[in-house]
């Protein structure tokens, strides 16, 4: 283009402002887009406009720019890589909007430009974004600050409902409009909608089952940025907070699997091209376009067969394994299995091999296969995990070092996702603690003494350890201090605790030997033939598991001494995990405050996110507690009153009144199946069930498997859809109808079924991961025995 200055006119009749006004703000934003519309028709390079001057108004209403310049707070990260296009302006527009709403510069918390630069590259958003209370405005600003690969263009952003004509209708005449949606007839000719969406984040295609929300895009971006940085630096960890119901679990799985697949494809490409690492790529953590940094060493000849793995070592995988850990706990009963020998038959069954009908299998599929081949489905699942790319497991398979070694879970170089991790500090403390009762130690010692003759090297050190601990307990039990009724205890911390452990011969030097002997003893017990001497399941479980609780029903009046080692610092356990794996991603709806969370775990989290909700909770959600029923009966949902017929009848009447008022779907949650069955039986006896069913068809969460549940859920959805069609039909009939005096004709809804009701159990199949958007759930009713009232939430049609 010619070397000359261009005049850019910034029309803004709003003038200077003292505080943000929503109507004036929307009007100003639209007019900025008019300017953008004009600029796009000029032969203009985007690096000729200072993005920070987007809202600056000169006295004559114009601005002259002769050379590229910029304000760091308003410049997109890609500007520093020399990439200038329209998306740079979109980013700056979001920053200017943030400044206009909050009345302060973005990144005001940063003291230097270098600090701002580091935050930009790390994907950390300005702290002032948290001051934007309007969720829709927050979402618009968040869209503008998305990574360049997923950032909307100016035209795409303008299609957002935020900019729909509400004021200054004439302004919209000069703005490009999105084409009208196709009619039902034309849509039918275009074929079915795609079953999945593909969004590109950091150059990586991420498959998603539907069009993701802005919060989900931001969530997936943070995951991919974290994994990119981990691959470059060796380790990188993330704290990601997103409110319950925003689809964070799906976002986690889609983004990590997409990164893993891209890693494999890039590894395969570099293997065949023998490419050398690019120094520029090594220095660029985010702006490398989603590509991955090659290995620093050549991967060898692709035609050469890989060397055979030595005994005890596992084959190196093409990509890091993803461990997705949840709150489930390992049960003590899982320590032994008589069908362990047929594990290979479960693993090798054709139905669960690649391409088989159960390639993506659940535990029910493995149980069926185990019954067919007479093999252990539990140990079969463990062996399948060796070659799996994605492993779902309980927390303690990963967090507890003893269980992790016993289960042979290798986390070196792995990606670990800890979902619902708001209690991870307590879980780490628990994993680093030991509680062993004296009678269990005695039983263990007796079994070990019987096995010494078979292998002295393994069992002798374990016998001596149990003897030393029991002797130490015997010496100390008469010196305990009283701490309540029939409870005596003594506690030692710091140097005193170390001295007591040395007195019991539990030292750092002897621990590796004991650990090796315990592992061999467990292995021998697992491989023992029926009828041969080996450690029992309980003793084997004690040898390696952290915590064995005493069963109820012990003899009355008997005393039990317990030897306990309590870990009070969660960083002792968590730091070992963070140093071993490639990346740890902690997610929950409640991780804040993140600074204290990070310091307690003793790990630096390079990426953090506090995402907003996908809905406007102030305008689209109403929550309340109902203390009394329709007849002023107190809804005291305690264990004492739960069996009262008066209370059960009051709950039924209250639910009927709610169903009468609220259209659409109604979700009703009970604390247990037992209470749900008890109330259902009572309501059927009194006729309350029939009255409820007259208002809304009732569906109950089944106790059975997934197939039965999906059948019930399908029936619920069908009833909701029929209700929507009925409402549309009524509207058509009522349209234009009026009485002789001109009064509009209303269609009566009396005795008409409006939607459906779904009775479910808290933490059951219905409570998480199911789509209950829009008409599927206009009200949620919760009965909790732990509270004194019934809680309801109303959801508005805007959701």
UniProtKB/TrEMBL annotation:
Keywords: ATP-binding, Helicase, Hydrolase, Iron, Iron-sulfur, Isomerase, Metal-binding, Nucleotide-binding
Gene Ontology biological process terms, A to Z: double-strand break repair involved in meiotic recombination; nucleotide-excision repair
Disordered, as annotated region: 289-314
SMART domains in alphabetical order: DEXDc2 (SM00488), S_TKc (SM00220)
Any one Pfam family match given in the protein's UniProt record, by short name: Helicase_C_2
Domain Protein kinase residues, every copy: 1-163
Superkingdom assignment: Eukaryota
Name of the protein described by the UniProt record: Helicase ATP-binding domain-containing protein
GO molecular function, one term: metal ion binding
Family note: Belongs to the protein kinase superfamily. TKL Ser/Thr protein kinase family. ROCO subfamily.
Domain (Helicase ATP-binding) ranges: 202-470
Species whose genome carries this gene: Solanum bulbocastanum (Wild potato)
GO cellular component, one term: nucleus
Statement: the UniProt record of this protein carries the keyword Hydrolase: yes
SUPFAM superfamilies, alphabetized: P-loop containing nucleoside triphosphate hydrolases, Protein kinase-like (PK-like)
